[in-house]
Amino acid sequence: MKEEHGFTLVEMAAVLLIISVLLLLLVPSLTEGKSRADQVSCEGSVRIVESEINLHYAEHKSYPATLEVIKRASSTDPLVYSCQSSEYTYSPLDGSLIKR
User: Fold this and answer.
1) Is residue 12 part of a domain?
2) Residue 72 sits in which domain range?
3) By C-alpha distance, which of 95, 83, 2 is closest to 51?
4) Where would you find the membrane-spanning parts of this chain (predicted)?
5) Sheet of 86-91, strand order
6) What confidence score (pLDDT) does residue 1 get?
7) To pair with 68 at 20 to 30 A between CA atoms, which of 14, 17, 36, 90?
C-alpha cells in the first residue's frame, strides 16, 4: 500500500473558503478604522489652527483678516482651511472655523 502525503482538493477548498470569509469580515473594519483615524487627525489639526487664531488675537487684539496671515489658508480661498476631505470656513469677525 502506497502512502501519499499532502492535501486533497476538498481540504484545500475548505481552507481557502475559511480564509476568504475571514478576509470579508476583516477588510470593512480596517477601512472604517482608517477613515476614523483621518477624522480624528483632522479634528486635531483644526484645534491647532484655532489655537493659532487665538494666539494671533492675544498678540494683536484682533482676529486675522484671513488664514493667510497665519499661513493656514487653502490654496484657492484665503478664508477656507482644508483638512483631509473636509473644509472649514473661517470667520474673521469672531475667529471661528465652521465645517462646510
Assistant:
1) no
2) 27-99
3) 95
4) 6-27
5) 80-83, 86-91, 96-99
6) 64
7) 36
